[in-house]
Amino acid sequence: MKNIFLLLCLLYIYENVLAIMTEKQIEATKKLIRNTCINKQGVAPEKVDGMYKGEFDFSDKNSMCYMHCVLKTYKLIKKDNTFDWEEGINVMQTIAPPNIATPVIESIKNCKNAVKTDNKCTAALEIAKCLYDDDPEHYILP
Predict the structure, then answer these.
(1) Which structural domain, as residue segments, surrounds residue 65?
(2) SS3 per residue for 33-66
């Protein structure tokens, strides 16, 4: 009886804690992070929308710091302002369905050396631009 109870507990934990997110859940999470970082950094929503079209404005500090907020929230930028690409791969393998994870992991690998500056906000935008340029169709940042 104890073994059955333990097995049921483990199945519950697996299903409810370790389960892959649905696309709807991923979109809801992106929207929450987007809204939080837009408000925190005071960036115009149009600037953020432009990033989905490949418009990365390195002259706009608010846009750059918005992306730093996003990457920091996802824990994808280290304290030394480098891309934590290993964590990015780990997160994608853990929470994303394969149709999302596979192409994004490829972009993450291709962008692991994207950072060319010490400035945290500029570094974040360099990472985002690299991810977009590598595969615009599968650009996943909010």
Answers:
(1) 21-138
(2) HHHHHHHHHCCCHHHHHHHCCCCCCCCCHHHHHH
Neighbours of 134 (CB within 10 A): 18
- For the stretch 66-94, pLDDT in tens is 999 999 999 999 999 999 999 999 999 99
The C-alpha atoms of residue 110 and residue 106 are separated, in whole angstroms, by 6
Quick one: DSSP state of residue 118? S
Q: Which CATH number do you get for residue 114?
A: 1.10.238.20
pTM: 0.84
Q: State the Cα torsion 34-99-107-48 to the nearest 10°.
A: -20
Residue 10 lies in a domain: no
Q: What is the 3-state secondary structure (H, E, C) of 77-103?
A: ECCCCCECHHHHHHHHHHHCCHHHHHH
Q: How many domains is the chain partitioned into structurally?
A: 1
* Residue 5 maps to a domain: no
CA distance 41 to 36: 9
Contact (CB, 8 A) for 135 and 107: yes
